[in-house]
Target: Glycosyltransferase involved in cell wall bisynthesis
Amino acid sequence: MTQQRLVVVVKGYPRLSETFIAQELRGLELAGYKLTIVSLRHPTDRKRHAVHDEMQADLLYLPEYLHHEPLRVLRGLVATARRARFWRLLPAVVRDFLRDPSRNRLRRLGQAAVLVREWPSKNALLHAHFIHTPASVTDYAARIMGMDWSVSAHAKDIWTQAAWDLRGKLARARWAVTCTASGFAHLQGLAREPARVHLSYHGLNLNRFPPFEARRELRDGQDRADPVRLVSVGRAVPKKGYDVLLRGLAQLPGDLYWTFDHMGGGGDLQMLQALAKDLGIADRCRWRGAVDQSEVLAAYRAADVFVLASRITADGDRDGLPNVLVEAASQTLACVASDLSGIPELISDPSLGWLVPSEDPAALALTLQEAITRPDLRAAKGAAVAAKVRQHFDYRNSVAQLTCLFESGGARP
Model:
């Protein structure tokens, strides 16, 4: 078993909404890697998932803002200024700044300098999770130290970043991996060497999501005392489309009985609660806020339908293949979701769930009406998609692929 040190740069750690990252990193630990997690931000979530408590990685928090720790930043800059590569990097930093004249560019250089000075191991691999800010810091640090690096790209970081920035990082990274076919095709189209871009689905730790073998009640929306239970898990942010979902729910027939549970934090919660009230459905909606994985699992098992109305926002932000959708599917829970990004890679035909156009509350309402009134269809689709998850979305597959990439330096297996 390898004892290789792996330094992983992330935007924030731990984060409830990035369970897939913690799960993957824990898998790498179990594969024998010694991890140092370098976080650009301190945690803001009050809760933690069980996987965070199992992690054995060392933690290094860089200055979130340079003025918060000026002496630490100054020591980093002084130390890196002794390296010839630091001075060779500066013209590139200036070019980046001229294309993107923001304080963030300067912050990334300062954070990279601190990372170089406080580098945790002489013989370590360097990897970034997300190809936007974490990869920028990683790229600068690697160029100062004269070492290779690699990157995992996901969704927002791919679709909201300028093409010139992505091209540069893909050219300098030894290899890149991403988690949806749509993101994979986009990055390959930007890369000088497309063979250095790889596709690897995150998958689930199926030990944390064991099969749900109980029989669900055959609710059909006709019993006021036992309504159909709809659930969604996700941050209350624009790309999740919860306003579209609420408008769709409001268009359901008045004599159809359902409830809706939302689980997740996010800045749009108050707006969504107000919208539910304006639409006259507030009494059917429950907003449970940020919860841990055990509460999420219990919610999947108590529900009849999982629904997520993802959209592409004006700045290009979008979901990839939401981990919560795979989680719900693992519990034989029938899913209704938007037909964009990586979602059709899970719900690849009608036998596996329902896909609807994004930004279309009326279409969503019609689909939800069928899902609510057809418990037989829910059961069939839920069983089929659960079988697909257990066959193709085991996180051990992605950990094995990553281990191969780290050991081969990105050569295609």
User: Anything to note?
Assistant: The mean pLDDT is 95. The chain is about 45% helix and 15% strand. The first strand starts at residue 5 and ends at 10. The longest helix spans residues 375-392.
